[in-house]
Predict the structure.
Amino acid sequence: MLGNDYFYRSTIRNYVIAFGSMFNDVDIKRTNAAGTVISVIRVPLAYGPSQKYLSRINKVTTAGEPAITLPRMSFEISSFQYNPSRKLPKTNKISRQNTTSENIKNHVYQPVPYDIGFQLSVMTKNADDATQIIEQILPYFTPSFVIPIKEATELGIVRDTPLTLESVDYADEYEGDFLSRRSLIWTLGFTMAGTLYGLPREQKLIRTAITNTKKLDTDEQFTKNTITTDPADALKTENFSFINTFDEEFGDE
């Protein structure tokens, strides 16, 4: 419909992976009355809504074991919104030298800013497990944490992307009386300042320019002026000079 060639950079997928990697190594410790550590539990993390996992807590498998156990964390994308305050002039270009050809450079126009909302749910059966997890997360957000993320691989762009903690909510889910506690749920809302790049383009580098220059003493003769780079294989990031070569005179064509 848009008439463009196919392109895909897995940008949104990279944002999801980067967010999940922030919380995939959280541990909790179980201790006895004397304060001795009995066990260390790595809290599982998966993508999906918290309701999906809560509905499986009370299910029992054929072996008599619960279908899912707590503590557990889950996350999902909760919103996707254009942010005009971060938009740069769309005619500006970002360019990089092509890695396979010295005569080509890659470029794209300025990316489009989108704020991606994430929701992280912490589900536990007791308050101590929940506070252990929460206290390992909140101190890192003041309220933002910066994550380096690869955004346009063909340009080698790695951008420091802010992840901002927007909200912290707490809920006590239970069935029956108040002693029949089912699960404690902490819900953390985040916003990631993402960007989406358009169609990647290639541009050939101009190494030779030919111009016709009039002589001062006559309007009938021209001199062909050839301008080349020295050295011929110089890149834009290197030091180089220009060579002017004036060829024989020739008349109007």
Residues 206-251 form one domain. The CA atoms of residues 55 and 96 lie 50 Å apart.
